[in-house]
Amino acid sequence: MTAALFPTSEAELESIVAEAVASATPLSIKGGGTRDIGRPVQAGRAVSTLGLAGVTLYEPSELVLSARAGTPLSEIEALLAGNRQRLAFEPIDWRPLLGTSGEPTIGGVTASNASGPRRIQAGAARDHLIGIRATTGRGETIKSGGRVMKNVTGYDFAKLAAGSWGTLGILTEVTYKLLPMAETETTLVYEGLDAARAVDAMTTALGTPFEVTGAAFLPGEPSRTLIRFEGFSASCGYRAGRLSDMLAAFGTPERLHDEASQALWAAIRDVRPLGAGGSDVVWRISVKPTDGPHVVARLGAELGARTFLDWSGGLVWAAVDGPADGGAATVRTLTAMVGGHATLVRAPHGLRAALASFQPEAPAVAAIANKIRESFDPSGVLNPGRMG
């Protein structure tokens, strides 16, 4: 592959895509290069969005921000912190897990539909994205959405682009709705529960009106079941106290506040419990929370997997070391049995090339997805095969 191209305008990007279509040269699309997930793209040219950087609109009073796709996420978060605002979906930083370098960009966050532990309460990137600009595989730059959150009807390209991993268009600008930063946070820590009891505690907490913003289970000696609250100090204290009383049957929790709580949830967000940049294969498995303990038990018994639970048991992170297929046969069979889906997140290059990293789609869904992809990228030049 030749050296990466760094367009600095949409016009340059349109020319690059048009040339790629004319010469039938597939393009590998990259931002900061921190999210090396999916099948390796076999491309003749690489295109980076890092030349398309900078905040183009920030209205703190309206809680709206627009930025070009190559803008570093750290730059945006620092800007927002100055006004005690944030991207509520708590985007994951993949670098510790994948052993990648570079700086995450807001375009990469959007293209991967990033989210963290707060997803159970706030949703993912897609739920806060209100507008995009993108250059499609036709060499045309289109706009979808706007700068005001509103209901939409018809074809919502912004929502389709979030999580499309660059296969529908190359993002050039994104607009997000923001939320105020919490004044404080408190985490209840219950020790010694098994996975099933932990999920009972977490789902009970989520069924209350106390606005839980994180619920995770970390196995170990002792295990830890974590329930997070955010907001005003008095509110957090009241909700934590009330919920502690309601969950008395699960024990007396320790309370972590502010920096200690934030550090713990940042580690969960970035999948640090599974270790940084290792050689084992890592799977991200989404199931119903009540199926989480069963999935963890089966993965441990059949693959010797190291696991932990997020999203109240609905997200299983699993590290597998040993099977030649990285545990794919077991993982895919098990998730199919419980109606879940699994993504291969970390694996050697050869295994990533051989396996479908994303959950195989039902034939009818695959046909619809292919038609959508063909409508925006008829020549198949954008990240071909990445989501195969």
From TrEMBL:
Gene3D superfamilies: 3.30.465.10. Keywords: FAD, Flavoprotein. SUPFAM superfamilies: FAD-binding/transporter-associated domain-like (SSF56176), FAD-linked oxidases, C-terminal domain (SSF55103). InterPro entries: FAD-bd_PCMH (IPR016166), FAD-bd_PCMH-like_sf (IPR036318), FAD-bd_PCMH_sub2 (IPR016169), FAD-linked_Oxase-like_C (IPR016164), Oxid_FAD_bind_N (IPR006094). Residues 1-181 form the FAD-binding PCMH-type domain. Pfam families: FAD_binding_4 (PF01565). This is Glycolate oxidase FAD binding subunit.
